[in-house]
Records
---
Amino acid sequence: MAKNNNIKYLIKKNNYVGLLFFALVLASLLYIIKHETNLYKEPEPTNKAIESINISKKEITKETDTIKDLRLYLNDGDLHTFKIYQSMYNDTNEVTIDNIDEETMLYIAYKYIEKTTDFSNNLNYITCDIATKLNIANNIIQCGGTKYNISNYLVNNYITKELLSKTVTKIFNRHLTNFTNFYTNEDNLCYFIDNDYICIIKKTNYETSKSNKEFIKAYEYNDRIEIIEKYYYLNNNIHYQGFNSDKVGEATYISTFKKINGKYYWSSTKIYQTN
């Protein structure tokens, strides 16, 4: 059979022009992305901005009225209460708002009021009605008891549930949920009865616990004040580094008061390690 020389072979054209155009577009796009990325600077994280604000630090070497008042928030410690409450001055552990119980808060609030108030015009001799209500009439001769004269007991009419509650909020920024009896000195009690407090002071002769605090300096930040003090607790004429401690001598403590809505509240106290 004779060959057909008229057959035409169709050859598909290679689209080199299209590929080249696509490559150029892709290269241009990558260049633009890379160039813009190098020009873009990531903004500073918010927490760094906050840290830069809190770096503001002012050293205070002269005790101000605010610092004097804040130092009165602190419980030095007292061995002459029937129940021993937590002192801020612990030479082994940091004392914080999270490990102070509500009964201790009531005690500390009472002591703050005691330090800042003259009770003399608010003290009256107990009556037998009150003594009976508090179940202590059997201690008072005039009320049928055999132990003490009625003049040995005074009622502090200044202290109320509302005042104690406000003082706890002032010191700790806490709203109490559990009101209970608490001791104020030796066997003196504030009784919570009929939804209010009746605080009794029994006249006795005893040596109160003693401690000594000396203001060293303070640091004021935007969000807190840190107060540094020298402290010792006196027991049997011996100085100890912390309340109810066995370490002889004195120690340096730092107390932090956080600033919330323009007011300071106690947050923590611990041994201050000097360099």
---
Amino acid sequence: MYKKVVVITENKSILDFLLSDVHVLKRGEIFYGISISELKKSINADTQIILINAEEYSNNEIFKMIDIKKRYACNAKILVILNEIDSNFISECLNRGVYDFIEKDSAPDIYNTRLLNCRKSLSDAQKYAVLSSFINSTNCIKPKTGLYTYKALKECYNDLTDLSFFRESTFAIIALDESTKTKIAVNRLAQNIKKILRQTDVVAQGSGRFYLMLPETNLNGAKEVIEKISDAMGNDIKIRSGIGLINNQTFTEIEKNITDCLKVSVLDDKLYVIYEEKFASSLLSNKDVKLNKHYKLFQKTYYRKLHSVIEPLFYRTEKLYSSKLPNVDVAQYANENECLFSLKKGAAHSKLILKYDGFSKILLKISHKGLDTPENTIITLPLNKFDDIILSKYLEQFYNEFCEN
């Protein structure tokens, strides 16, 4: 496992001190202790800070570590923790590219300051890389808020995801709840987002939505960001959001998946909903895959029916039901993880959900909340017989049960 912040030490005493008294790392980061023998297998281009406890190693061993860093983690910054000052050694380290030095017996504030300066240097370089990605995009800034435009983000998305520090990143879409959506609230949300996010985070403003790309941030880190923004907005203004890992998705794919989560966030009155990729293969054990020779065929069949049956029928039905039920919130989405059709009016909320089991069946569930008589429906449908006629039948049942109550 590659580490972003490593401490090269053999006895771990300095590591205990850093973990307890130094607190300037970014979201989700922690000091990892490794020995000199583990250096090559523990760092790569994603490693950002390397601390060397110099008293444990000879000068030649330290110079060797610096050379290894140049080959495996060329952009990482090295800080050497010194037990005593040796001007010749310091001069040679600087010539070889060491960023800074810390005297071992320094107070925690000194460690924090040196590491903070190191982090700022790294962040400035990352911010410059982000700005460089947008430099050729026309009309890339919203004049009123200073945020990137949706068009610019879409154009620059591929360039951004090519940057090394975007390899482990999350994508989020934030919108105001319709009950509290005003121009003042939109401006307030824009200012709070700018205030809370880091200079390397990317924020674009679209029509009623804010699009966030959070580099070097896992799902827990993204949830904390959304919670901070919500707290800043106060109890009188609600926000809704979808969150997901970027991985290798195109902009079109990630936008659709996170928009689906945003819809659920709105429907279920939640602060955020997370998109977690549950590919059909994850439902199968290695043994199952070997036994089931038709696994890939089943998967391709499901994807074909998703795009040729479910998506178009859901879309047409949404338009039809919206015209028939003007006072009902009608919403739908369809993706590889889950397909949902929703009717909501006040406390009454009905859902039709489709899920693929990874083999040869589709699970269909109709659930009603806030209605008196309808019972929930859960059935399993054979994938090879699933078509628009069958789906239309259950959509009609779903509609009638909602309307009858």
---
Amino acid sequence: MKYCWSLEWEKCLTWIFACVLVCRFLYPFYFNPVDQLWSDFKAHWEIGADLLSPHYGNGTDPKAYQVWIYVLRKLAADNNRSIISLITGLLCASLPYFWYRALREFCTRKTGLLYAILLGAHPSFLVMYGYFMIETVVLPATALAMWMTFRSARKQTLSSCMIAVVCWLITGFTKQMMVPVACIGMAYLLSFQPRKFQTFCGMVGLFTVFALPAGWHTYKAMGSVSPFGYAGRENINRDSGHTSFGLDMWDTRTGERWSYGWSSSSFYINPLEPLGNYTSYRIKSPYIVTIDLAHGMQDWDITIREAAQQHTFYERLKDIYENAIYFMFGPSWPDSDMHPGRPLHFLNWQLRWVFVFCITAILAFTPVCRMERPKMFITCIAFVMILLMLFQQTGVMEGRYRKPLEPFILLGTIFIAGSLLRRNRDDKSVSLREFIMESLTGGLSGKLLR
């Protein structure tokens, strides 16, 4: 009787998961991202068209997403809405499916379905597919990389490891903040490979294949060899102490001139609503810089130093405090809305409070918990990246920068709860310290629990 009930429950979860995948696939047909070509989304759309003739915008942004938009525009002949909806729908549905396949490498089918349904039904991972956002690619790419990583841990072959490395490189070259996650993933891969030297050489070779054209692409656009995109603009914006940033660029060799302006969405919302109020300490006026492209990186280096010099130690302390508020409490822009006129956006706005408790739990309990290595791998990524994001000094923090880490945060919290509630400790479970030491020294066996 108990077996029959378990079987029926698993069948029910399978149907629910199938419905979630279908709904996600259909979402872009009703909310096509080509209907939202404004602000960053319009810039992404236009930059993708200029992939082979890079300019300033191509130089600052990561490379893989530009390639994605370029390919999407070619396949859709720029304006075929049906093809754009079809491809975006497949991308949308792939996010929970890839996580399901990753979780099935060490979880039961029923547990994997439960976790995948949670991720697939969460509006934070759905509403974004109505826009051209980098996160729409980096989240499925990360899920695929996790699947290939756990698969490689099971197979322990060089070919499966190289496939996982390619997936991690795609993730890192899609969004700069995911580079540390990719490094952790590849360290985990290397730790259980029997032929470590060959594996490491393969990793270096694949990175070179990605980095050389990406660095050349940025060099053509900016004069800087930066494979992951040039972050000088974000450095100036953060150190300036202003809420907005203006860039006046020209090229004295050709006489061409461009003007750009930015301001973070964090400065126009109250992240603590309705429990409190927070307003940024920053000066409410634009910080204008001028760059002559004929000087290469010289003007950029001077401007970055000037901005850093005027950023006092006291302001850096306030920056850390503000950074933590926006990371933990800030909503994701533009897929959150405090007005109930857009139900999914409004629900996404309210659910941001879940991540406050999850982040607190991960910081508090990860160092004292013991769990199976795959679970500790996911939780370790959440723990390390939360610390890095809380104290990052690269740019102005926004709630959407938390989004690529949200699957790790949600799953990590569930794993921590299970570890705390479980009385009998498994001999194969490890602490955070043991996991990090084993990963760094290559001591992992690579035999995942089932």
